[in-house]
Amino acid sequence: MISKLHYITQGKTSEEHLENIQRACASGAEWVQLRLKNLDPKTILETAQKAREITSHFQTRLIINDYYKVAKEVNADGVHLGKKDICPLTAREYLGKWYAIGGTANTLEDCKKLLEKKVDYIGLGPFQFTETKKNLSPVLGIKGYKTLLEKLQTETPIIAVGGITLEDVSDIINTGIYGVAVSEAVTQNFNLIPTFHKILNAPSTNEQVYKLGDNN
Question: Which residues bind Mg(2+) (predicted)?
Fold first, then answer.
């Protein structure tokens, strides 16, 4: 089962990533993606092992960004592959059927390629400008999501990603998007996680209005 809220880790050091994972899990995160960039293989593996320990304690699913072999070595729950990473079919052959495999997409063509390769979910974005990711693809916005979803007509979960805040979620979900991946907004305030869950799991987001700090 793919979670409707994906927390993508942030941090200037591996220790900060782990601290943020701890906070996210303690605040109710069900799905955490460990996204480490520009670190040596040894540090990546050690950080992933510690992340697995934390997430296992909270029964939170752990996804490793990019490093599919590390995902298997630490017994994570899956891997998320960027557009320039290894082919999902190669990762599937290595990992087996029990691991979740997600892929990044920006266009209709990207999505179709990933669907052909039988990914479990697609991270589609960016929704809007974000400084979290370098070499940002063209921004999609609400209109972009509606257009792509109408053309795709897929049951594979599509996860919106890229600069998403709590205030954006209802409008995004009303396009037919399955869920959202959030980084900065959650890192700044982990107490928002229950409210994200509330909105994402509401029967009709059109009828729900949530305000910052409303975690009841």
Answer: 66, 85
